Amino acid sequence: MDEPVELFDTVAAGRIDVQATALLGGDGYVLMQRAGQAAWQCVLQHWPQARRLVVVCGPGNNGGDGYVLARLARQSGREVSVLHPRGAAPRSALAQRACTDYLAIGGHVEVSPDCLRQAELIVDALYGIGFSRAPEAADAALIAAINAAGVPVLALDVPSGVDADSGKVPGEAVRAGRVLQFIVAHRGLYTGTALEFAGQRLLADLDLPPPALDGIAASVQRWSKPALSQYLPRRRLNTHKGESGHVLCVGGNHGAGGAVMLAAEAALRSGAGLTSVATRGVHVAPLLARCPEAMAHGIENIAGLDALLARASVVALGPGLGQDAWAQALYAAVLASGKRLVVDADALNLLALEPRPLPQAVLTPHPGEAARLLGTDTASVQQDRFAAAQALAGRYSAVVVLKGAGTVVASPGQLPRVIAAGNPGMAVGGMGDLLTGVIAALCAQGLALFDAASTGALLHALAGDVAALDGERGLLPRDLLPHLRALANP
């Protein structure tokens, strides 16, 4: 029941279920019983003291899994009630069979949510992974009652009301402390609004024969801490600073010098051999006072930028850049240089005004910037973060890091990655500037753009998690800097 690495969409999950059923003799009840047994083992492991269970069963096969769990719990001596919405008796043949077996041992079914008041544990088996619309009024009221009960909730496969493909929550949804996914993990539970409802995500593979997955590929990779050691190996003893690349950070318009400095410091702490800053002249002295390792240059027009661009391995473009004439001139010069880029903040807004392919770039938009780049609205981006990231990657021929809860990294021709780290304390100005510097540093050290973007987003998020151990509220971007260094040396 460990966290998975590969995440699947619901079409793939359905195909696996069909292939597994065929391999197990064609009787889908075998799988249903395995799912119910796995759920019961999960209850025993995590809530061994719970004596009164309420299992909320819907009319489909997800409800059937719940009936199997209810039967096993009752046979073990627990006090069990099955609750289903009025008029929502089992409709699938497998769910009917599971319900019959439950009733045969003396089990009973409730239609009033009043029984939730006596529960020590609620099991959500209302909807399955194919449900993607807002619940109707009666079901919405039942879900609200589950959430108001004040007891632990275990969801089977997916919290009811959460879209297992996209992670959107179009109406009421169950807030589950734990979710036990069956056979494969569902990509929608790892990003966006779904994170508010999914709690701890577990996986039971149901001991399927390996051929059950033949010909079926994951649609997303979960990118977690073990990836760091693969992509950030130890340096050889006989190394020099030139081998670790030269990052040029371009930005810091009037009133925004701190943004470009955060990017530069992050680049240095993430291992860049050299880091230069092209910014407004008024910012040079304070930037050098804060970080003498950065080579700060006052650039009032593009004449002084060419020499800096010639020496750079990668350019971090956008932190504090602004959109005035100065910003537009620097932006145009950087794009014309042909250098590998990490594009953030106002550079993204300038790109949205005149879209163009950037095949040597990493774009790092938050949902609002992503909406402008796609010509849509933020709500649409958040409705399906995987689709939005892939649409951006296709439109701009670039690697895209769609920031937010469950950051998504996409690139043309690559399997998207979702970052399994980060916390709400990181929702503060300057965090994106830091991320820009981290990714640029990894690009400068030789990682391919997609790997640099994925590893950089992970490194940044993990550093945020360590920094947040002292509390999320009040977390500042600079709090991450010492942890970037530590984590960049796995």
From TrEMBL:
Residues 13-214 form the YjeF N-terminal domain. SUPFAM superfamilies: Ribokinase-like (SSF53613), YjeF N-terminal domain-like (SSF64153). Binds 1 potassium ion per subunit. Transmembrane segments: none annotated. Pfam families: Carb_kinase, YjeF_N. It catalyses: (6R)-NADPHX = (6S)-NADPHX; (6S)-NADHX + ADP = AMP + phosphate + NADH + H(+); (6R)-NADHX = (6S)-NADHX; (6S)-NADPHX + ADP = AMP + phosphate + NADPH + H(+). This is Bifunctional NAD(P)H-hydrate repair enzyme. It comes from Stenotrophomonas pictorum JCM 9942.
